[in-house]
Amino acid sequence: MDIVTDDQELAQDLIKLLHAKLRQARQELQDVRRTSHSEVALIDSTKLKQQNQELREELSTLRFRLSAAVDNEDTKEHSFPATTIDTGNIIEERLQALRDEGAAEDLVKRQLESQIKARREKYKIVKDETDGLRELLSAKLEDLERETSKIDRYREQIAIAESDMSKSGLPEAVLGESLDVLAFLSNAQEMHDLPSISSLKLFLKSAPFRGLPQYIVERFGTLKLLVFPSVKEVIWSEDGVSRLLYVAPPYQYNPTANEGSRWVENRTTSDLRKVGDSQENLEVIVCQGHGSWYYYGTYQCVGYTSLSRETATALNTTVASNAMRTTAVNKDYLAPLALQFINTLYDNGPLALQCVGLQRTGFHHELSDALLSSKKAVQSIGSDASMRKSEKITTASLLTLQRSDQPTPGKKTSNRGRFEGPRKKSKKQG
């Protein structure tokens, strides 16, 4: 009843409904009274009284409810039963508790969603990293297989080099002990009647030196030229011109040659030893770098010796390293490990660096003037595209140039005054 009376509109509707029922009950009572005599035989009077009593009780109940509704309508705006207030408070508290629980659940839900999102992102990162590591591992395994294959080839090349050494029977390459290199360099005395290093003149620039024009050879006859295409092959005395030490490997290893002939004696040191024994004059030509070629003067070989790795390195690290590096030729056919093996042959044998000492004894002024006046001719020889690559001078070389009317048995001469001695063997020739 409290719930009904709290709603004013519902109470009014209820009053109307009670009035309608009351009218209907009165009408039914009158009808019963009118028909009571005609239907007395059909209707049980006891039952009719009972129904009448029920209607009266219902009417009384409705009147009571209607009166209570009217009273409640008058006092609704001024007072509320304590039970109604308490019930409202309880309901509000429960509603607030439910709201709080819902908010807490929403917070937990959001936190879980945030954690799930973070873990998904972390999983994606870990997955990407794992995929990257797998790719890296796969690449490293491929590199390992390639390196293993290379090591196998390196071992084969080292075994071949060792076998060639045993078959060639390489001795310790010692030229002799006739030259004290430290005294030779330190006791050099500059000859004042000869041009100093600063007065030397450039005769060829930005082109390789491959020989002299034939008319120069015809003019001076036989010429022996000692050509140094790199200053890394020479240790000079203090004045830079009076004395020099040519440092070179005693043997050279060619992996493309036929079996049993891959180790060959250094031709230049062998030729210089012969020239030194005969006290022949050598006209020295040096490239100071960047294709700048100079005529240094006339020299003679005054002695030779062998140098250990330690001694040569103490004299000049660059020259010693270059000499050991040039022990192997056609290096494209050798693995890095095989090159390192060849380099270790200078550690306590069986190889020792060779050293030839030369001293300047004069200066061929007429030859110098001829070179300076023939710059274009000399340069055209060096730049001639028709010349074979094998004719390019890459290491110290002793060239013998002769007149065309003075052929040397077993050798050919060129109309350009180039050295035409024995050629390097090709891959097919071995």
Notable traits:
430 residues; alpha+beta; two-stranded antiparallel sheet; 12 helices; 10 strands; rod-shaped
Task: Describe the protein in words.
This protein has helices at residues 2-5, 8-34, 45-75, 82-168, 181-186, 214-220, 267-278, 309-315, 317-325, 336-344, 365-373, 375-382; strands at residues 202-205, 223-228, 234-236, 243-248, 251-253, 263-265, 282-287, 292-307, 353-362, 397-401. The chain has 430 residues and is an alpha+beta fold. Helix 2 (8-34) runs antiparallel to helix 3 and helix 8 (309-315) crosses helix 9. The relative contact order is 0.12.
What's the tally of helices?
12
Largest sheet: 8 strands, mixed
- What proportion strand? 5-15%
Low-confidence stretches: 1-5, 171-175, 409-430
- What's the overall average pLDDT, rounded? 78
Element string (H = helix, E = strand): HHHHHEHEEEEEHEEHHHEHHE
Q: Strand tally, please? A: 10
CA-based gyration radius: 60 Å
* Gap from first CA to last CA: 125 Å
The helical percent reads 40-55%
Overall 3D form: rod-shaped
| Structural class estimated from helices and strands | alpha+beta
